[in-house]
Amino acid sequence: MYKILIKVIVVSGLLLASHLSSAAIEVHEFKNEIDRQRYQSFIDEMRCPKCQNQNLSGSDSPIALDLRNELYLMIEEGKSDQQIVDFMVERYGEFILYRPRLSPATVLLWAAPVLLLVFGALFLWLLVRKRRRVAQEVETGLSQQERARLDALLNADSKDKDKQEKSK
Predict the structure, then answer these.
(1) What pTM was computed for the model?
(2) Which of 59, 145, 146, 159 is at a distance of 20 to 30 A from 34, taking alpha carbons?
(3) 25-96 sits in which CATH class?
(4) How far is CA 116 from CA 98, 112, 123, in A?
(5) pLDDT higher than threshold 90 for residue 105
């Protein structure tokens, strides 16, 4: 009796799983290959509003399905890429785009990597320069000002010796 009950549960589970997996398959017929590529590009580059860090092509949420269907209809209607993006941003905000557009609100987002690289290089340069200066002071036991004064005295002394040798 147990064996039959377990088999019924397993078969029911498999049938349910196969039904759910077949529901996720979408078939859209496009007029041409360019429209299909545009559609694929949009669903790969737009974020699912519900899943937050998953694109529309990888999301199984109902809203992602609705957005994929909406994208298909807009492409079939002949809307331009800019019109489609503007519609999606107007409806869901800049969040829907994986690569937000450059605007006053996103300037810092786009500039941050460059600024961090410049500040990091500047910090590294200053750190190396300071360490060299400290190493030089430790090596000679003199500060930079003392070293400059010593060089001036040595140069003056060598000039005096040169004058003495020339006069002989």
Answers:
(1) 0.52
(2) 59
(3) mainly alpha
(4) 21, 6, 10
(5) no
